Amino acid sequence: MTTTAPDTPAAESPKPEELTDHQIRRLRLASGWARFLSVIGFIATGLMALWFVGMTVARLVRGPGAGVSPLAAVFAPLLVALAGVCGASILLWSYGRNIVSFFSHGEPALQRAFRSLRHFVKLWTLVLALMTALKIVAVVGRML
Amino acid sequence: MSTSNPFEPPRTTDLDAVPGGPAAKGALALSEESLQELSATAPWARWLARMTSLSIAVGIVGLVADLTGSESVTAKAANVVGVAISTVIATLALVVLRRYAAASEALRAGTRSAAGDVIDAQASYFRLQGILIVVGLGLLVGLFGIGILLGSMR
Questions:
Q1: Is ipTM over 0.95?
Q2: What is the pTM of this model?
């Protein structure tokens, strides 16, 4: 099934790994779910942004000592989550769309899809690290 | 077939092969660049798995700290349920992430056949996350509906 240029020596460039029917089905599945997650992520980003604005306004109106939660407990995690979910949604959308593009136009769309996925994994690792660090700060604060 | 109906829903045939496109020609293959992108994800996937484990552990430590505090029984029960749900979700994701990390590390080590396992793990990860979100949203809507129902009965 794989097509190679007739003048390309096999020793110089390895033969492309042929996708099986199962792998094609799994890629389509991944693409569909990634786009679904991306849409949910965009909606969540909007809701979190509204919440963040609401909390900021409430803090400005009532003042810092009026029962609004401290920075490490609410504001910082929300900001990290907002930026993380927004970025992740963009990357997931790119991943899903590029897989679709790969099925209709071929490479380099799959390479772009996997690059988006790599950036998504990187971003999500950093977001999770920050969220965990903030959670540790909040837990230690409660225990002291 | 095209219609002049302006309310025609968007087509869902984007995923189908285009006539004459690569899928129709049977040319769907993983290029060397795509394999490199997949294997470059390996260290980050491993770190994501480690971070998920750490996050689960911190959640449990936080719960223990909350339980020893002076909060009300209702607040403590809500914390237990919240941490239990998030731990189950994170553990399910961790299982798939570890599979993904192992497959991409094998690919990075030169096992080209591991590419299939990486693709398989990607699909499992996104499907799991999607199903969890659908279930979560369903529960949220259900609880919201019950709340409205109870409120109207008072």
A1: no
A2: 0.78
